[in-house]
Amino acid sequence: MNSALKFSNSPYTTFMHETKVDLGNGIELHVEVGGNPEHPVILLVMGLGAQMLYWPDFFCKSLIDQGYRIIRFDNRDIGLSSKVRHQGPRLNTVKLMGRFILGLENQGAPYNLHDMAEDVSLLIDRMGLEQVNLIGASMGGMIVQILSAKYPEKINNIGLMFTSNNQPMLPPPFPKQLLSLIGKPESHDEDGIINHSLKLFNTIGSPGYVNQLEAIQTARKLYQRSYYPAGILQQFLAILCTGSLLKLDQQIQKNTLVIHGSCDRLLPPSHGKAVAKAISGAKFELIDGMGHDIPPHFIPYISGLFAEHFKL
To answer: How distant, in Å, are the alpha carbons of 16, 172, 187 from that of 166?
Structure first.
């Protein structure tokens, strides 16, 4: 670990410490680290519009307790990391989505997932890490796929959660789930944003496992920490302008575990199966009853699967 980095206590948990890491490419990432410095590192890469706190503290702690050092961070354009100001023309999202589903190339986004993967590669370098284990969720899983194909020397094993390789003709998200992710809140005051987040959690989350009180507290905490809807749109455009990762998947030579929820209606399970099929030797695990989230009920089982997988 780079000894020049200055850490302070996380305001959210007792077992994590936070810092800022300048990547040298105009982007600064906000990072939290926890666990024994001597233990192998698991770097957690989050999804579209999701601050690092979407990695539940309970999930991080259970991996720390199983012998790992955990790093979570805000991707560019979200949370407390750098925001990318873009002056270019407005893009027609619906048109881009249609082309994306058909496997046609899109251009014009301020950045794409290859740029976001480059951020993670630079983060590994700047933090002075040796080979890391990676867990990527949703869009974070797409970033991990790119990183694993381009920089195999930086990576030990890979874990992927409810993600996709965006190959053509995979089933699209169910409309209700997609609209909850990219739709606009009814009002832009704190309560309006929190109600919008709550609706999102309930729509994409695991049916019957979303704790309403916890969800409200989480939504408020995230809003008060950072609210930047432009970043969510730009990350969505990054996905649409990256396209299929199938050819990259076929280059990956790492031990890979793909986990997907049977009740995921944002990225149906066939997306995760497509990733596992494309990566040589990848294992696929379908979690019965799980949606597009990481509720406490499933964490002991999921964290155990990853902890075992990374011991390979």
So the answer is: 34, 10, 32
209 is a domain residue: yes
Domain annotation covers residue 3: no
* C-beta neighbour count of 204 within 10 angstroms: 26
In this prediction, residue 179 carries a pLDDT of 83
Contacts 24+ apart (CB under 8 A), 91-95: 91/237, 93/182, 93/233, 93/236, 93/237, 93/240
As a dihedral over the C-alpha atoms of residue 59, residue 293, residue 156, residue 79, rounded to 10 degrees, the angle is -80
Residue written as token pair 């089933």:
171
Query: Does 229 fall in a domain?
Result: yes
Q: Provide the domain limits for residue 253.
A: 8-309
CA nearest neighbour of 48 among 199, 240, 224, 219? 240
| The pTM of the whole model exceeds 0.85 | yes
HEC per residue, the chain: CCCCCCCEECCCCCCEEEEEEECCCCCEEEEEEECCCCCCEEEEECCCCCCHHHCCHHHHHHHHHCCCEEEEECCCCCCCCCCCCCCCCCCCHHHHHHHHHHCCCCCCCCCCHHHHHHHHHHHHHHCCCCCEEEEEECHHHHHHHHHHHHCHHHEEEEEEECCCCCCCCCCCCCHHHHHHHHCCCCCCCHHHHHHHHHHHHHHHCCCCCCCHHHHHHHHHHHHHHCCCHHHHHHHHHHHHCCCCCHHHHCCCCCCEEEEEECCCCCCCHHHHHHHHHHCCCCEEEEECCCCCCCCHHHHHHHHHHHHHHCCC
Domain membership of residue 43 (yes or no) is yes
Give the number of domains in the chain.
Answer: 1
Q: What tens digit of pLDDT does each residue of 182-228 get?
A: 788 888 899 999 999 999 999 999 999 999 999 999 999 999 999 99
Tell me, what CATH number does 158's domain have? Answer: 3.40.50.1820
